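Why should sequence recovery work at all? Because a backbone constrains its sequence more than one might expect. Tight turns favour small or flexible residues, buried strands favour hydrophobic ones, and helices have their own preferences. The token representation captures these environments compactly. In the example below, the structure is given first.
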């Protein structure tokens, strides 16, 4: 979804609210003949009919639950830039240490008085299938976020950022950043849709987030629709402006390495609250600093929801290991999920994955295709690609999500 195309100045105040902001666009395409005419749509509950894909994903061998492996680099271009692939150790998140995103749900949490109203506004409650590109090049509808580290060396390219949307002051207008020519934005920057691109610079302690990235740069200028920069230190409320809630794109994306570690432990969770998008929002609450919706009766951007169950209750269900790891992450023993964007009008909640482009741009295997797909197959979950995408639905059975997901 577009960031900051509407500035909502009205905020929501409540002593019972605990918040955290992340940024994503839960987007999608046409599935099984169902048109997604609104940019940002994802399809919920569609039956996927396998169709030929232009680039065949690797044929994985089911491995069952296994520890995440460390990809082996393999050069894929003549670039001589020195680029450290963004790949924090599994089970960790090294930035924005003061963010609520990294804090567990409080003990004995108080349910927000508007929780039932907000849940009713979100339609049939469930989770949109995990969605990512089925090929190493990220060609097609790749609605997951690539995150890169700042590059150096003779092959690196220094470019000046130019914001093209007439929405006021863009805090990265004229900023210079160092990139590796091998890097690619979401959906290759060619579709005219979100085309997110996140760049982490540990030397300066900043994250740069871009939306509607036009790739490649031309004559030393990188055109973006909008974007921002924020400090890697602190709570993440620095105005990265990569999406509707104006929060860091790297914060709260579902990383397969973290998911695999949680599956391996059988009782673990991902180490952060998950980004989520919903069908409608109404204003925003701190720490969100913007919103892209004002529909009465809907939750505000920045609101934090959680599954009102404990780990032992989740583990007692017959859900798949993938589903249990996600459910434990959002239950009240762990972190919950934070609304950061609208999802194109679809019911339920959606999560964004870290893009395989973070790795495949540099010739490394992508963990979504090479780890998550085999794991899903080993668990008996359908992984047939459609239109160059995987849609993985872990199931989430035996839980009344409509009554057990609540807002703080």
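From this structural description, the recovered sequence reads:
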């Amino acid at each position: 979804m577009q960031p900051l195309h509407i500035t909502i100045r009205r905020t929501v105040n409540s002593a019972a609210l605990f918040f955290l902001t992340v940024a994503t666009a839960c987007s999608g395409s046409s599935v099984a003949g169902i048109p997604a005419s609104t940019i940002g749509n994802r399809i919920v509950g569609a039956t996927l009919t396998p169709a030929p894909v232009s680039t065949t994903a690797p044929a994985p061998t089911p491995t069952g639950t296994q520890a995440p492996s460390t990809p082996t680099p393999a050069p894929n271009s003549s670039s001589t830039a020195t680029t450290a692939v963004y790949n924090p150790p599994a089970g960790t998140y090294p930035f924005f240490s003061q963010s609520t995103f990294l804090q567990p749900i409080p003990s004995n949490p108080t349910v927000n008085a508007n929780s039932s109203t907000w849940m009713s506004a979100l339609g049939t409650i469930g989770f949109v299938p995990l969605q990512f590109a089925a090929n190493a090049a990220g060609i097609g509808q790749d609605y997951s976020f690539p995150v890169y580290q700042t590059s150096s060396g003779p092959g690196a390219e220094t470019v000046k950022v130019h914001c093209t949307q007439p929405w006021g002051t863009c805090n990265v207008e004229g900023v210079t950043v160092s990139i590796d020519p091998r890097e690619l934005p979401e959906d290759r920057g060619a579709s005219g849709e979100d085309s997110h691109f996140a760049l982490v610079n540990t030397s300066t302690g900043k994250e740069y987030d871009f939306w509607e990235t036009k790739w490649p740069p031309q004559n030393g200028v990188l055109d973006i629709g909008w974007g921002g920069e924020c400090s890697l230190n602190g709570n993440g409320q620095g105005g990265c402006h990569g999406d509707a809630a104006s929060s860091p794109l790297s914060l709260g994306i579902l990383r397969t390495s973290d998911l695999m570690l949680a599956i391996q432990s059988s009782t673990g969770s991902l180490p952060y609250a998950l980004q989520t998008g919903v069908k409608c929002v109404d204003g925003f609450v701190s720490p969100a600093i913007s919103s892209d919706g004002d529909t009465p009766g809907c939750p505000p951007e920045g609101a934090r929801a959680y599954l009102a169950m404990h780990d032992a209750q989740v583990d007692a269900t017959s859900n798949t290991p993938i589903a249990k790891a996600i459910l434990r992450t959002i239950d009240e023993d762990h972190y919950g999920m934070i609304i950061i964007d609208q999802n194109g009008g679809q019911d339920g909640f959606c999560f964004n994955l870290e893009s395989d482009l973070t790795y495949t741009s540099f010739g490394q295997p992508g963990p979504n295709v090479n780890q998550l797909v085999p794991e899903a197959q080993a668990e008996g979950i359908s992984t047939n690609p459609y239109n160059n995408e995987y849609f993985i639905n872990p199931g989430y059975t035996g839980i009344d999500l409509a009554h057990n997901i609540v807002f703080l």
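A few observations help interpret the result. The radius of gyration is 20 Å.
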